[in-house]
Structures are given as C-alpha cells and as structure tokens.
Amino acid sequence: MITQKDIAREAGVSVMTVSRVVNGQYKKVSRENIEKIQSIISRYGYVPNLSARSLSSKSSGIVVLIIRGKGNRLMDPYNGAIVGYMSQFLQEAGYSTMVYTVLDYRDVTRRLRTWNAQGAIFFGMFDNEIEQIREENKIPLVFNDSYSTLRQVTNIGIDDFKGGQLAARYLIGMGHRLVGFCGTSLSDNGVDRQRFLGFSSVLKEAGCPLSEESVFDADLESLPPPDAYADGRQPTALFITSDLKAIEFSLRMRSQGLHVPQDCSLIGFDDLPIAGFTTPPLTTIRQDIRQKARYTVDTLLNHMADSSRPSERIVLDVSLVVRGSVADLRT
Amino acid sequence: MITQKDIAREAGVSVMTVSRVVNGQYKKVSRENIEKIQSIISRYGYVPNLSARSLSSKSSGIVVLIIRGKGNRLMDPYNGAIVGYMSQFLQEAGYSTMVYTVLDYRDVTRRLRTWNAQGAIFFGMFDNEIEQIREENKIPLVFNDSYSTLRQVTNIGIDDFKGGQLAARYLIGMGHRLVGFCGTSLSDNGVDRQRFLGFSSVLKEAGCPLSEESVFDADLESLPPPDAYADGRQPTALFITSDLKAIEFSLRMRSQGLHVPQDCSLIGFDDLPIAGFTTPPLTTIRQDIRQKARYTVDTLLNHMADSSRPSERIVLDVSLVVRGSVADLRT
DNA sequence: CCACTAAATGTTATCGTTAACATATTCAAA
DNA sequence: TTTGAATATGTTAACGATAACATTTAGTGG
Q1: CA distances, A213 to each of A179, A182, A200 (Å)
Q2: Among B47, B84, B98, beta carbon nearest to A75
Q3: In chain B, N or C: fewer CB atoms in 10 Å?
Q4: Residue predicted with more confidence, B220 or B330
Q5: Which CATH architecture has domain A160-287?
Q6: Model's pTM, two decimal places?
C-alpha cells in the first residue's frame, strides 16, 4: 500500500509537496511537480488514508446518520428511502456516511466521537436530549421532524399540521361525519401530534369533532378490531398516520371479510411507492422524501462549511393524493 | 475531548497502562489501576479515537458494503432490508459499516483503502472483477449471489436454480402450458440465468419448452405490452424474477383493463413484505433475507478472525409461497 | 540472602497525514 | 546592488493510539 512518502521519494520531493498536490493546493506547487506527482499517483493508484488525515487535520469527512430505535430500521421503506438518498447526496459531495441506530442518547456521543464525525443528522424523536447532545458534540447537527421548542435547532420537517387538515377536509368533503384518527406518541410533541391537531381542528370547525373514543394513540395491535367498523356507530373513515400501518390495517380488515373503502375509508401518510400498488390504491398525504433528504443534506453541508451560520428551520409542503381508499358518501 | 494522555496524567500512570485497560488486557494491569482508570473513563466519558487506533494498529473496525449500481439503491426494498440487517449484525459485533454504491470496480479499491477496511461484502455482479479486486485488497471479501467460477470465492447465495424449478412446477401443476420468463442480464451467469435454467429445464421435461419469443431478457419497459396477453396465443403465465417488477407489471396490466390472474398469471421472486399486500396477493419464490444477511456477516467475521480459513460457498434454500396471482387452469 | 521468574509498568518509535513555521529561490522595484 | 514581496519547497512536530521492547517490582525456591 503506497503512501505519500513513497511518492515523495519517487518524485524526489518532500512529502509536504505531495500532500499539497493531493489536496489540490495547486497554487503552491510548480506545474512541473504537480504533473510529476499526479502521474505517480495514478500509476500506483495511491489513495489517501483518511484515518491519518482525520487524525492530523480533525477533518474526517464522515457524516453520521442517527436513527432512534432498534433492530433493522432500514426495512421500513421510509427510512430506507431517506437514508439511501442522504448517503447518495453525501457521497456525491465527497463525504462518507455511517448509519447508526441508537436506543439511548448516550450512544450518540460515542458514535460521533469515535470517528471524529464532522456532522450528524438525526431521525426520530430526540427533542428532550437535543441540548445534551449538542453540548457534548460541537459539530453541526441537523434534525428531521423535530418539534423541539429550543431555539437554535436546525430542523428539516414537513407541514404535518397541514397534512392533518388536508386529510380532514377531504373526508368532510366526501361526506364523512364520524371519523377516527390513529397515530402514536400523541403526548410527545412529534409529527403525529401535529397531524392530529390539524386533523381535529378542521373537524371541529366543520361541526363534527373527534370523539375521544375515536382517537387511537396506539400501535396497530391495540386498535379496535376491524369488525367493529361494520356497525354504523363506528367511524366511516380513519386517518392513519403512516401508509404502512394503513395498508396493514386494510389487510386485517380484508382477512375478516371487510373491505376498504366500503366498510371503512382510509387515508394514509407518506405516499410510499407501495401506496399506489394496493387494492384499492391508498389515498394518502404525500411528502417528498427525496426533497427532504436533499434539503437536509444541503443544510448540513452549509453549516459544516460555515459554523457561524444561524440555525434554520425548513418546513416542506405536503399534498393530498387522491386514490381509491375513501368512499364517497354524498348521496 | 479527552484522550488517553489526559487519563494517564490524572491517574498518575503511563498512557500504555491506560491503553491496556481500554483494550481489556486486564491480566497485565493491577486491579487497583484498572479500577482507577475505569472510573476516570466513565467520569469523563472517554471514547477511543478509532482513527488513531486504525492508524497505529491497522485494525479499523470498519466493514464496507459495496453495492453495484447508481442512485438510491436502498430504496429497493430488497437492498434496504439486507443492508439494514447486515449493518445491524455488524454493529452488534462491534463493527462499523459503510455503504457505498459504485459503478466501476476501480472505485472499490478506493473505498476500501481510504478507511483501512477490515472486510467487505459485495452485492450485485462483480464476477469478472473479483480477481482484480482481491488482488488489490488483501482483506476478507464475501460475495452475495455471485456465480463466479473462480475457486476461492467466498459466497453466500440462494438456490436460484431450484427457485426457477419451483415456479415452473407450480405453473405446470396449475395447468399452464404456454408460459413466459422475464429476467435481466441472462447472458451473464448471474442469479437470473440460474433461475431461467431451472425454470426452463422443468418446462422442457414437462413437454412444453419455453419458446424463444417468450423469454424476455429485459427491463420491464421493453416487455411486450400487457394487452398482448389477452389473445390466446400468448403465455397464460409469466415468471418475473423480482416481486417489485411483477407488481409493477400487474399495475400496468390493470391500467389497461386486464387482470391478474384472469388475463395472465404471475409468479414473482423474493417474497418481499409487499408481496402479501397486493391484489391479488403475489405468488412468489421466497428467500430469507434476514438469514442471508446473518450467514454473510457471520462468514465474514469468521474470515476476519482467521485469515487462513478456506473459502466457502453457502447456498440457502428457497421455497414457493402460494398466494393468489396464479390462475388454476385445470378444467 | 541471592538468583530467577512472573507480574506490572514504562519508553520509544511508528502508523500516514497535515499545520505551522522556516528556508530557498526568483523577480521586480528602488 | 539591495530590498522586499511572491513563489516554491522543506522541516519539525503533532494528531491519538498501539506494538515491541525495556525496565522495575514483587514473590519464589534454593
């Protein structure tokens, strides 16, 4: 494995000259030496050792992606897609990406320090730990979907409130009056809480407020069994804040001989590619994952380039995608 | 950011003693010092700098995952799942994972060298470059789904041939006589070629060989338009070597007013979670992605622990999952 | 009490690269 | 010719950790 030292010997110069060429500081090296060194580099296939560079210059070129949770988070198509886009964009910008799933925020610092990470992106809820994380790691941090009330948090999110509103307005417009909501961790101020607030505000205005028993702050398992929905006193429609869960729910219904949207209408969230594949195709609130990844990476890179840059919060738009999972109840 | 030097000063010992404690060489340090040092470590939250360790010991703790292709490969649920599992397993074993997508094998060496990778896993076809890659990188390499004829290639794959057989036998058993095959890169000896060979061998034995015009070595776009299948001279069933493509195909059919399985039966491959969600649910050949990831990681770790270990080829089983996308044509 | 092993600890050099500073060299202006 | 800036190159030390070897200390049997 060839090093700068070897190249320097071969070219009859000092390692520092080689280092300058490797790092593109062409103004400081004579044209003659640049050419000589570059030709040796390509002849031997020299590759800089980033561990060494990282040690000596404190710039590792590593960005860490932190996902809260456990197990295989990349199986979830949303996570797979956003992680994939982010590492693609980071790779295009010359950075290497490490993905870690952590349970505890203490793991975060360990992960960031071990590799001298130059920046980090966080998914999932970290609101309560943000201050701590930031204090322990003086590098640019960018969050996704955080509703932390702290100032100075750089966050890229979507308009979850509007998403809820869109869902509610559409249901109302289709003649639904008794509807339900299903999300998780509503007591934390996360995405689902905002979706809930948007959703319920519209319903209230329309004169058909969400009753308490039709708000499910729960994983799918604890949802009331689908056959409850056959009886007319149950909601005619459900807003489930994730396509994946909505699809799973519709499967459970089907396994009991019930059908979407005849027995219960469904609106999902995310607009994953599979949402168009199901039967009926799922009506859902769309967020643009690629765009979110793009903005997140760009924001991080900006902050890495200029650490005095003020924090920023970006809210991306969402839209309603009408497919076939909501019944038209207007006579 | 605290280093071993700081700890050594605080404890009144040399850095070497600290290093020994950090690396768990407890037999070489007195109980007293072990405790003193460990308490300082946890008090200050010391984290070893792996760049430095990597430089000095040549052991970086990094495993690189190389995917051939471009763009966001993790969006594909198969890749997302297997990459997710592998990094999970590697993380559990104390290693860090870097995922790279490369177009050219030359990138491979660059990626492996920059981080002193200790091992690498390859997806996608690299058969012709394996020799070269191995020569340039003297670290354990494990491949997935390679049909390289080179000796000494450690590979974890599935029984693709059997997968093809299972599909064909099932179709025959259901009364299909005129069937088609759709895969990619059949001329390379990859997974799809094996699936094709298994598939066609069974059909031949059964007396209804695949005609040339019903073998599509093509991306979906270049498949004949679905409405061709309405006319009786076209295949009554298609074996499409990827669930994702099969689903996409069935959507294209539906958009033209045709239906699976009435107008054309379909068998997919992989048994992705979405295969059960579609209408009709997709009959497919199942491979166990988690198990594949498990074996691949374990094999790599074994080879990293003992570099003299002989190469091995592991072939995992596949099975037929009958759902609803194949019509029963028996009278 | 000495020699001798085993256990505990320390010293030095090194990994590959870069920052910071130092030294030549060149050329133009004074 | 001298001076000064600009350009090109080199030297040294440092980044944090570990390997390899060296030394000290403690404990053992003769």
Answers
A1: 11, 11, 13
A2: B84
A3: C
A4: B330
A5: 3-Layer(aba) Sandwich (3.40)
A6: 0.92
